[in-house]
């Protein structure tokens, strides 16, 4: 049984699982890595199912993950604390100290993945549909170890977690649960799409809506009334998804539907099993 200990780096509470020499392994890093592996595995399995080159999809996913990390870091720096990083440029590379924006990760991953899909001469929107369920699955797993907690609860409800002597909202558990539910929706929706890019559009709108809801319980600076930067970015994501929906419906309609043997009961069962295991692990380590 490992012993968890918390350390303060950059104002963020990181759960350290173990260390060797000057190197530390944190819970968040482990869950992010697990999420990436799960996303990569699911994407390559889907590529095999539709007779796409597994090597080409592996290439797209690998670059998307790289773009996601770069984009997540850059947007966080530009939006949340540019002055600090201008005066402390080497801090840019201390990702282990915290400071990643999921919206930046989506942007960076999309554009680098788009580039690689075009280089591999793949149908971009077909690939986007293929990768969307894998992407949200990876995000759900990664969120288990997230080190940003919510605002204090009005009352000490039993599902709250203690941080610095206060009972706060377990926003990571909220988000991972909603992400898994979105995964289940995208997974079952694959067999009834009406245009290319529909699964990706549902992912973009769905995740942006999830983030808008979860943001209500997070402690982020408000920039417009009660709205945070993350709220504004999520609204942009929803609007982009709606505009994409109208464009893709007209540009890439599908006359025939692909037969995909998907059991709704099995999908629901696996989804709830993942939610139970993930929230259990979250409370075991973070609670």
TrEMBL record:
One of the protein's GO biological processes: lipoprotein biosynthetic process
Task: Give the UniProt family note.
Answer: Belongs to the Lgt family.
Q: Where in the cell is it found?
A: Cell membrane
| Pathway membership, UniProt | Protein modification; lipoprotein biosynthesis (diacylglyceryl transfer)
Q: Which UniProt keywords apply?
A: Cell membrane, Lipoprotein, Membrane, Transferase, Transmembrane, Transmembrane helix
Instruction: Give the protein's function.
Output: Catalyzes the transfer of the diacylglyceryl group from phosphatidylglycerol to the sulfhydryl group of the N-terminal cysteine of a prolipoprotein, the first step in the formation of mature lipoproteins.
One Pfam family hit: LGT
Residues holding a 1,2-diacyl-sn-glycero-3-phospho-(1'-sn-glycerol): 143
The scientific name of the source species is: Heliorestis acidaminivorans
Spans through the membrane: 23-44, 56-80, 100-118, 223-244, 264-285
Q: Which GO terms describe its cellular component?
A: plasma membrane
Name of the protein: Phosphatidylglycerol--prolipoprotein diacylglyceryl transferase
Q: What InterPro entries does this protein map onto?
A: Lgt (IPR001640)
State any single GO MF term.
Answer: phosphatidylglycerol-prolipoprotein diacylglyceryl transferase activity
């Amino acid at each position: 049984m490992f012993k968890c200990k918390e350390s303060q780096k950059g104002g963020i509470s990181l759960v350290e699982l173990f260390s060797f020499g000057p190197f530390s392994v944190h819970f968040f890093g482990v869950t992010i890595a697990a999420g990436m592996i799960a996303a990569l595995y699911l994407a390559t399995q889907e590529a095999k199912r539709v007779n796409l080159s597994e090597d080409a999809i592996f290439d797209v996913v690998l670059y998307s993950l790289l773009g996601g990390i770069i984009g997540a870091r850059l947007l966080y720096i530009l939006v949340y604390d540019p002055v600090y990083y201008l005066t402390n440029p080497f801090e840019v590379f201390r990702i282990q100290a915290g400071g990643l924006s999921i919206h930046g990760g989506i942007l960076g991953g999309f554009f680098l993945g788009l580039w690689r899909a075009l280089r591999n001469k793949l149908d971009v929107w077909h690939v986007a549909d293929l990768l969307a369920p894998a992407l949200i699955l990876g995000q759900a797993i990664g969120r288990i170890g997230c080190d940003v907690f919510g605002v204090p609860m009005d009352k000490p409800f039993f599902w709250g977690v203690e941080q610095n002597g206060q009972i706060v909202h377990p926003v990571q558990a909220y988000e991972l649960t909603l992400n898994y539910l979105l995964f289940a929706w995208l997974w079952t929706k694959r067999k009834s799409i009406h245009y290319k890019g529909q699964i990706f559009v549902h992912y973009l709108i769905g995740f942006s809506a999830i983030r808008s809801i979860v943001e209500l319980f997070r402690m982020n600076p408000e920039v417009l009334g009660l709205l945070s930067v993350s709220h504004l970015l999520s609204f942009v994501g929803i609007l982009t998804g709606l505009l994409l929906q109208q464009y893709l419906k007209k540009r890439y309609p599908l006359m025939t539907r692909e037969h995909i043997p998907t059991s709704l009961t099995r999908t629901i069962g696996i989804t709830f099993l993942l939610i139970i295991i993930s929230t259990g692990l979250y409370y075991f380590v973070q609670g």
